[in-house]
Amino acid sequence: MSSAAYTGIISPSLQANGNAVMCGPICGPTRAVVSAPTAIGSQVADFFSKIFDTDDFPARWHCGNWTDFHGWLYILSDLAIWGAYFAIPILLFRVLRKRKDVPVNRVILLFLAFVFLCGLTHLIDAVLFWWPAYRLSALLRLATAVVSVFAAYALNRIFPMLLGLRSIRELKIEIERRKKTEERLLASEFLLSEAGRIAGVGGWERDLITGNRIWSKTVYDILEIPYDQDLNKDFPATFLPQYRKLLDQAIQDALLKGSKWDIEMLAQTMGNRTLWVRHIGEPVFNSKGEVVKLRGTLMDIDQYKKTEIELSQALEVTLEQKQQIKNFAYVLSHHIRNHTSNLEGLSNLIDVELIGEENRQLMTISRQETSALMKTLDDLAQVIETQDQKTSDEQLSLEETANDAIQAQFSQVSQVDVLKHFEVATVRFPGLYIKNIFKHLLSNALRYKDPTRNLRIELRSYQNTDGENVIECTDNGLGMDLERYGHKLFSLYTTFHGSISSRGAGL
After folding, report:
1. How many angstroms separate the CA atoms of 474 and 446, rounded?
2. What residues pair up with 419 in beta bridges, in sequence order?
3. Which residues pair with 427 in a beta bridge?
4. In this structure, are strands 261-268 and 291-300 parallel, antiparallel, or unpaired?
């Protein structure tokens, strides 16, 4: 380089060492003089045209009093800083590629550029010791400055969001809370799955948009479908044809009318076993009121359904047998009554005064037995007729029903005191039964009255501790030993006072 190309000075430190080195304008205080007419634009043009030209500057080793230790300390430090600045963006860029859900990835990219440019400034500082590209260094510093300003601006914009980020301690607490919640959910899911397995109830869902079907493991178990079978590609025909039509119609009604369904049907498992299932479903609507899904449950009711069918068949047989017995009773009663009536008529035609004393007694006994047989047949006919009557509940006033029964029983009887206390004023019950209850309670009280005192009867109603309505009748008659006869109280032809005429058919 020609010394006439610039004006320079000799470094004082080099003069002291006796090694005079001429430095360019960048090292000394003397600047090149620019004439006034020279426009700033020409300087800029000259700057960029000589961006890689190093003729105007000496290498940094030749500018100043550098010792080997001082120079290499400076160079190695810059290279170390550049290496770190170069590695940091690479690592952060790898993080961004793997974690695309980072909320501030654009800001991070801006900081990557900032760090990378900072590293380049340190690299160029180290290179200047041999290659004095000061114009390129200035351009890199300008780019670093611009990116730094934008990075600071971007950081200022996201600063409120950064302040709102939770601390490590808060995140740990949240993680622990979520772990406990997940454990509870897993426990609940296990219990629900086990309950469904034990009860034989599984859930299903069908997405009408994607066509995907989701069935719980219990449904797979009920229909004996392997767990690894893809129902979206290979859906087995699980229901018998006649029930398939019912289910298709129910699904159409759900899609068009939004209705639910609950159908009991026969299913064919993949193990060729036929069983009863209960298919329940309903539509799921979106915000626009459109049906987007169907979901429901499938229940194994094979055992209960078969038991129900067996009970229904047994009930039909029982009803048929009951009807046959009832018909037989009617026929038997009719024929016996006819024969008994004939015997009673014939016995009445006999004039007992014309026969001997012994025959007269036999005829009297025969008439008594025939009369008793007729009463027995009347009682049996009344029992059959009562049991065969169809009754319905009605709202009844206990006061009015009791008054009717009292009027019918005691209209011709004096010296009877009836007290009434009805806390429950009305009941819903078959009227025929309530009237017969009052009739027989009052007639029994009159039949078994104590002859030594006036008859006193108390009728009352109340609600017991179980919420049941109770009708109670108390009298001061002869009474009975309930410990001895209580279990026979409602038996046919059972009486407890032998000296009093009674057939034991009322109760």
Report:
1. 12
2. 458
3. 396
4. unpaired
